[in-house]
Amino acid sequence: MPRLANLYFKTAIIFLIIGIGIGLKMAITEDHSVIGAHAHANLLGWVTMALFGGYHALNPQKAERRLAMIQYYIYTAGVAVLVPALYLMLLGNMAMEPIVAAASIVIFLGVLLFAFIIFSAEQANATISPARSH
Ligand code: HEM
C-alpha cells in the first residue's frame, strides 16, 4: 500500500476513536448537544479519510505526487481544527465560531484539491510493469 494511503487510514481510525468517544459521552450523559462534533469526526474524519486512503491505494501513482501529500495536510489540518472547535462551540463557547468557519473553508479547499487529483490524468511517462505470475 502507498505510504499516503496508510497515513490516511491511520488518521481516519484516530478520528473514529474520537468520534465514538464523543458518541459514548453523549449516550452516557444523555446530553446530545455535541451531536455535530460527533457526526463530523466520524464522517469527515473516519469515513471520508478512509475513502481518500482507499482511492490512493487503488491509484498508487497519484499517491506519490507532492500534491497528494499537500492535500492530506490541508484536509487533515482542517478536520483536526474543526472537530474540537465545533465541540466547544456546541457547548456554548461562541468565540469558536470564526475558527469553525475558517476550518470549514480549509476542509472545502482540501476537498477541491482531492477533486483535482481525481480528475487529473495518471502520469503519461508511466512504465508498464510486467504481468504478475500469480
Ligand atoms: C459506538 C459508536 C457510536 C455511538 C455510541 C454513537 C452515539 C450517537 C448518539 C448518542 C447520537 C445522538 C442521537 C440523537 O440525538 O438523535 C448520534 C448521532 C449521530 N451519529 Fe453516532 N454514534 C456512534 C457511531 C457513529 C458512527 C461510526 C457514525 C458515522 C460513520 C455516526 C454518525 C452519526 C450521525 C450522522 C448522527 C446524527 C444523526 C441525526 O442527527 O439524525 N455515529 N450518535
From TrEMBL:
Ranges annotated as spanning the membrane: 7-28, 40-58, 70-92, 98-119
Record keywords: Membrane, Transmembrane, Transmembrane helix
UniProt name for this protein: Cbb3-type cytochrome c oxidase subunit I
Organism ancestry: Bacteria, Pseudomonadati, Pseudomonadota, Alphaproteobacteria, Hyphomicrobiales
Source organism: Rhizobium jaguaris
SUPFAM superfamilies: Cytochrome c oxidase subunit I-like (SSF81442)
Gene3D superfamilies for the chain: Cytochrome c oxidase-like, subunit I domain
InterPro entries per the UniProt record, alphabetical: Cyt_c_oxase-like_su1_sf
